[in-house]
Amino acid sequence: MTAKKETPMMRQYREVREGLPPGCLLLFRLGDFYEMFGEDAVRGASVLGITLTKRHDTQMAGIPFHAADNYIQKVLDAGLKVAIVDQTEVPKPGKLVERALTRILTPGTVLEEDQLDPRSGSWLAALNWDKKGLHAAWVDLSAGIFEIASEERPEDLVSCLDALSPTEIVVPAAIFQQDLPEEVEWLLKRSIVTQLDREETESRDPAGELCQTLGVLSLEGFGIDAEHPAVPSAATLIRYSSEMLRRTPGNLNRLSWRRLDETVRVDSATLRNLEIFEVTKGGRSGSLIDCFDQCVTAAGSRLLERWFANPVRDVPELHRRQSLISIFHDRTIQASDLRAALRQTRDLSRILSRLQNRIRNPREIGGIRDTLRQLPEILSGLQILEDEKATDLANRIGEFAELKEILEKTMAEELPGKLNDGGVIRDGYDEVLDRVRSLARNARTWVAEREQEEREKTGIKNLRIKYNGSFGYFIEVTKANVHLVPDEYVRKQTMTNAERYYTEDLKEKEKEILNAEDKAIAREEEIFQGVVDRVLTDADGLRRTAEALAETDLLIAWADLSRMRGYVRPEIDDSLEIDIENGRHPVIEESLRSSPEGIAGADSFVPNSCALSSESHQIAVLTGPNMAGKSTYIRQVALIAFLAHTGCWVPADRCRIGWIDRIFSRVGASDELARGHSTFMVEMNETANILNNSSERSLIILDEIGRGTSTYDGLSIAWAVIENLHGQGPRGPRTLFATHYHELTRLEDSLPRLRNFSVSVKEWNDQIVFMRQVIPGAADRSYGIQVARLAGIPVPVIDRAKEILEALEGGSTATNAPQQSNVPTKKKKPVKESDQLSLF
Ligand SMILES: Nc1ncnc2c1ncn2[C@@H]1O[C@H](COP(=O)(O)OP(=O)(O)OP(=O)(O)O)[C@@H](O)[C@H]1O
């Protein structure tokens, strides 16, 4: 049997297919469709839910070219890459059209508007792990941000990456042959991972490669040594992105080194526990970031995400952000005018990134023009404030008067999404273009007039001259009037109800029109490219402007919500204290505002104060009934501390915080269970991390540690943990410890820097009323049974529980209750002094 001869087009296809990286779906442009063949077609059809067909034994599936974006998004969501082969010349009859691989789209390298979340960064990260620690580089190609970091303790860097939530991570395949730290494995499990071969990740001169892309002679200008252990990861990212974009990224000119000791470290567990970016059950709604995002521009929201992912210890920088909020807070009218102007701006930084990577779209150039139109108003809006920091912000915004004039002169007011649609360049700007356009217009008028003439000549009242892509211009006559058609009409196509004809002079005109239109589009393209090149000469200034606009938007949004919600400017200093007067939990406060009936009947948030000092009142042990508000209180303190380090104002009447190096939390464990650890193991791992890594500058919140094991073991561990955090020295980390172990309140007698607090409740007719107030002193009872009743436990069970409790507390056995010695009571010591407490 002879092998079937390969067609030239299939050769074209095969040549590209063979060179593609694994996991790619190849979309091959065939006229108005992107086609997939063979295995790609089978896979694509199942991912996209489209029909699989077969032609000459080859399986095929296609998607319309014009609707490709939606389909591409689905493929990327399924974790696959998409290779695009486009036609690179205008098809000519009888000749194989030239095609080329123009892009490989991967989740971390997409730049197209439709495939990016406007309010979230799109991070592509590269990791490497060796004896010196974990090394990483990450880039947002859609915004031109490029950073590296390296840490001896992998968990520190993992939490920094966790906050960024990379859409794709590239790693050398060999990394999996080593024993990876558990945190790294966990991070990789949650992302789309691309494994690269050795030759793709190793380079003789990674620093040199980086310099070339960034357009610099050395990395020293960025404060980065060529031997920095994360430099190879950064070079890997450049190589990988270049392969996917089919060119070196054109919008990277800076590399920053994220020094984690300049930031407030918030480990991954704490990010999740405090629901900073996502709520525990998944999704952004109800998270802290959601509560603080009231930006009017997408770039403002992305900046908020970056500031939340990178809380800083840099007190002057925090003061700068706070002062600007303060000005916008006080000058409401000016701030609202600025906001109105910002609302009219477009996403400059993403548009620029696309242009710099040769993804051009006339509407986006219109977006730049629309933004430039707003700049004078924004500039004067900032200058009018007559404030040094607002002026600094204004100084980062350019005017671009000349560029604006060029865009006004050249670009039409209403712009099409595609260059080929025509109508991009204004009438009157270019003589050549005007001439060809008027030829086309005249010819079209000729056609319209001709229709009228033909109707009169033939007496066919409903005769129409129409146009379609495959036949060009034709005359359409309904079947009933066919007998009136003159001889010179040439029949072209028969329809159910009509006949279609052409005439020689109509064909001549058609040629003239199409010719003129082609010429017009070619001329428009030439002018448009000139405009794009001109925009790019201002790229650096435009990018700086975009950053300043995003900052203005974010700070005005924060000022606005601070005013609406009654937030205050926190004082941040070098002290070792936290002093919050009437603090509130920002997310719960807002949710109570919108739904006035909480489960316990609360109708508004009850504020509570907090005073901690590493040197005097370092540890607060918080007791109180279930549902009283212990977790809420300790979380609210951590959230206020977190917010203060982003520059934001905080929900309190007054707040002073000595800067914090790390925020630790040990609360909740749900999603950690997925790692295959028991609740108790997770709890102990996290506690070990806290004990080993906290300093006198840290803030720790601990919620019921020790509850995952037997009461005595748990209590003993909790007791020893508090003693360790207190330590023997003069100071220790500021700590809030919420617990149901009332025995721990006795530590106040032996540890001078520990204070007891409780959340108050009142008893009324055997019911409890939650007061939500944190007061000095330990709680007297647990009220667990009353809370169980509130939760809907059946009455007989509640009654029986009461009997058992009474029996335990009174030592009676009349109710057939368990013996007191088997069940720890809340009021009694956990065990006999001699056999347990002597340990403490
Ligand atoms: N200060 C407050 N003002 C108003 N409502 C509050 C306040 N604090 C807590 N709440 C409400 O009470 C509910 C229970 O609070 P929280 O979970 O903090 O209690 P808890 O003492 O930690 O309970 P448990 O010991 O059972 O874990 C919260 O979901 C919230 O709706």
From TrEMBL:
Residues bound to ATP are 624-631
Region: Disordered, residue numbers: 811-840
- Lineage: superkingdom: Bacteria
Q: Which Pfam families match?
A: MutS_I, MutS_II, MutS_III, MutS_IV, MutS_V
Q: Where is the composition biased (Polar residues)?
A: 812-824
Which segments of the protein form a coiled coil according to its record? 499-526
Family annotation (PROSITE patterns): DNA_MISMATCH_REPAIR_2
Q: What cellular component terms from Gene Ontology apply here?
A: cytosol
Show where the DNA mismatch repair proteins mutS family domain sits.
698-714
- A GO molecular function for this record? damaged DNA binding
- Basic and acidic residues: bias regions: 831-840
Q: Which SUPFAM superfamilies match?
A: DNA repair protein MutS, domain I, DNA repair protein MutS, domain II, DNA repair protein MutS, domain III, P-loop containing nucleoside triphosphate hydrolases
**Entry-linked InterPro entries:** DNA_mismatch_repair_MutS (IPR005748), DNA_mismatch_repair_MutS-lik_N (IPR007695), DNA_mismatch_repair_MutS/MSH (IPR017261), DNA_mismatch_repair_MutS_C (IPR000432), DNA_mismatch_repair_MutS_clamp (IPR007861), DNA_mismatch_repair_MutS_core (IPR007696), DNA_mismatch_repair_MutS_N (IPR016151), DNA_mismatch_repair_MutS_sf (IPR036187)
Q: What GO biological process, any one, is recorded here?
A: mismatch repair
Respond yes or no to whether keyword Transmembrane is given for this record. no
* Keyword terms: ATP-binding, Coiled coil, DNA damage, DNA repair, DNA-binding, Nucleotide-binding
Family listed: Belongs to the DNA mismatch repair MutS family.
Which PANTHER family does this UniProt record tie to the protein?
DNA MISMATCH REPAIR PROTEIN MSH1, MITOCHONDRIAL, DNA MISMATCH REPAIR PROTEIN MUTS FAMILY MEMBER
Q: What this chain does, per the record?
A: This protein is involved in the repair of mismatches in DNA. It is possible that it carries out the mismatch recognition step. This protein has a weak ATPase activity.
Q: What is this protein called?
A: DNA mismatch repair protein MutS
- The gene name reads mutS
